[in-house]
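Hey, I'm writing a tutorial for new members on how sequence and structure tokens pair up, and I'd like a real worked example in the thread rather than a made-up one. If someone can provide the structure for the chain below, I'll link this post from the tutorial.
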Amino acid sequence: MDEYRRIADRVEAAVRDGRLRPGDRLPPQRVFARRHRIANSTAIRVYGELARRGLVVGEVGRGTFVRAAPPLPGPALAEATGAAPVDLQLNYPVAEGQSELMARALAALARPDVLAEAVSGPAAATGTPEAREAAASVLARPGWAPDPESVLFAGNGRQAIAAALSALVPPGGRLGVEALTYPLVKAVADRLGIRLVPLALDAEGVRPEALAATHRATPLAAVYLQPTLHNPLSATAGEGRRAELAELLRRLDLTAVEDTTWAFLVPDAPAPLAALAPERVLLVDSLSKRLAPGLTVGYLVVPARLRAAAGDALRSGAWTAGGLALAAATRWAGDGTVAEAVAAKRADTAARHALVLRHLGGHAVRTSPHAYYCWWELPAPWRAETFAAAAERAGVAVTPGSAFAVGPGTAPDAIRVGLASPPRAVLDGALGRLAALAGGVA
């Protein structure tokens, strides 16, 4: 028998008899090689063999850990299952009958005269008067509607966020963000050379005193916030918290980027920060979640003092909306398509929330009946990356907490479970598999 297999057998025996327990970390491979008086290359083969047997899982940047559940039957954790996992990472809801709804506007756009104008090139950042009126109607909340003249258009939500940050934060500048934040913001900031500064959270989102203390210690150029259905925690700030944040922005002379991408799912959400401090808030949103990511636009509601800078950022980044997408979005807003899709998705979130309660109700899960995701603080001894790897082996893809964490040493042993993309019956089965995995049942 090869030497690396004999050593792997000894490690496996230590796991089986309890000398190595689930969640224990193995030494770095070089240290392991010295202890066993073997070459580094042999140690690498030992660790690979242990992974092949499903006994350990390697976590990038953290090490190799004994699995916290028995190996599943079939190929080992380190090998592909051959079947695509149920995707609970991407999160694009599709309502029943949505395609037929959207087709109505697209059919109207197919007239040669209308189509020729729509596909002639990208739209201006300011769109058209009709498009601005339509956008204002889509973004309106009870008690608040944006001034149509304050609306600018991007190609999608990501580009709207990029333009907002580019307009507010110079390269090397500091942007305050929730300590757990939307991963896309991390990627955009990295591309723009922006330094992210984590802000402490509570049950309603960013703590005002944490924002004030951070800004006074070293000034921030801006702050990015998700007051409604925070992603990934599903938290929604109450009216009192929003009023406190709005007053704080004024007092600190600070501008916020308010992301309301998921807020459409909450029919009775408090007014956005943009309603309370319109001169201090640049609101971003899009049609991607309301309708579909393949043909969408991004929205920016911009204070007058920042409109030129935001428009310049959209143009210089080539982030303006396409003519066809903007024309379709305008029609979808006017013919009731957006409103119908929103109503259907609000009902759908309630049904999917019931599935979360059925399977994960006994666990430490943070979510909302209006949310298309939940945040699961894993039971010991699970680690987030280990669980995500084991879940994928079980046929379910989830996102470990490190994807949302800002700053070193802040990654929690939690995962985000996206609820939107698979059909409900598929989601039901996937949640059952995750619950069984957490309990050590293969």
